[in-house]
Specification:
mainly alpha; 273 residues; 0% strand
């Protein structure tokens, strides 16, 4: 199987999405606002509690800003182009392409998320690392990676995060194809993504008896595992185990999703015309 068509669609979708500069700036502004709200919540929490916490305040703040920087990588929506094709019936044309539909859509999903995330992440790092301390809020800044090793592992973990997130988006796309609407699947997936990834509350703050379960489930690889690697919360073999687990979930979800989408497309019926 040639990978050239899939690389081509990735490049075309990536370039297309980069043209939405106003959306990137608007998203950045919104994420700065929510970032400050979350940091204020953690500031109040740490000042009101003297008990030992699984993270210190600096790590929690870094966790928050990373979450805002890479928010666009969370797979909480079906690909809007796929949803539009399902609504219009144009999805029938996807069966005529001499390509594997799963990998074709997978490449589109990766480009869609990366192109939205990169501009916002660059602006967020510049703002939270540089501008926030200049404004006199040094304790609320985004810290740099704990060590060079953490930086390298974080880069590797985020690469796998993109692959894992795209695999989950493909399941959302599959639900859209089966139910003929993206509204239901989008509504169902959002709570799982927000809670189980650690986006709302970092997973280490959950009860101790839940930690093995939370670490092992696939959504942890979207936020919690890579972010804790960044600030040194996960190091050595534990960090490698986290990345390996993320990769394993990507392979499993990709295999199941590929077979399920093929079955759904084989039974696809388009009314009218």
């Amino acid at each position: 199987m040639s990978v050239r068509p899939y690389l081509t669609v990735f490049r075309m979708r990536f370039v297309l999405m980069l043209q939405y500069r106003a959306a990137a700036v608007a998203g950045f502004g919104t994420q700065c606002w929510w970032g400050f709200i979350k940091v204020m919540v953690f500031a109040a929490f740490f000042r009101s509690s003297s008990a030992h916490q699984p993270m210190n305040f600096a790590q929690a703040v870094t966790y928050v800003w990373l979450g805002q920087a890479f928010l666009a990588l969370l797979p909480w929506l079906a690909d809007p182009d796929i949803a539009q094709m399902v609504a219009s019936g144009n999805i029938a044309y996807e069966r005529l392409r001499p390509l594997d539909t799963y990998f074709f859509w997978y490449a589109r999903a990766m480009a869609w998320m990366i192109a939205r995330a990169v501009p916002r992440a660059l602006m967020m790092f510049a703002f939270a690392c540089v501008i926030v301390p200049v404004l006199g809020m040094g304790d609320w800044r985004l810290r740099l990676p704990a060590t060079p090793e953490s930086a390298v592992l974080f880069a590797g973990a985020m690469t796998v995060t993109v692959l894992l997130s795209s695999a989950i988006v493909m399941f959302v796309n599959l639900g859209c194809v089966i139910t003929l609407s993206e509204r239901g699947v989008n509504s169902l997936i959002v709570p799982f993504i927000l809670v189980l990834s650690g986006n709302i509350v970092p997973l280490p703050f959950f009860p101790n008896w839940m930690q093995p379960i939370l670490f092992a489930q696939p959504f942890a690889g979207l936020v919690d595992i890579p972010y804790r690697i960044y600030f040194g919360g996960l190091t050595g073999w534990i960090a490698f185990a986290g990345i390996a687990q993320m990769l394993a979930w990507t392979i499993v979800l990709g295999f199941v999703g590929h077979r399920a989408l093929r079955a759904a497309m084989d039974r696809l019926q388009v009314q009218g015309g």
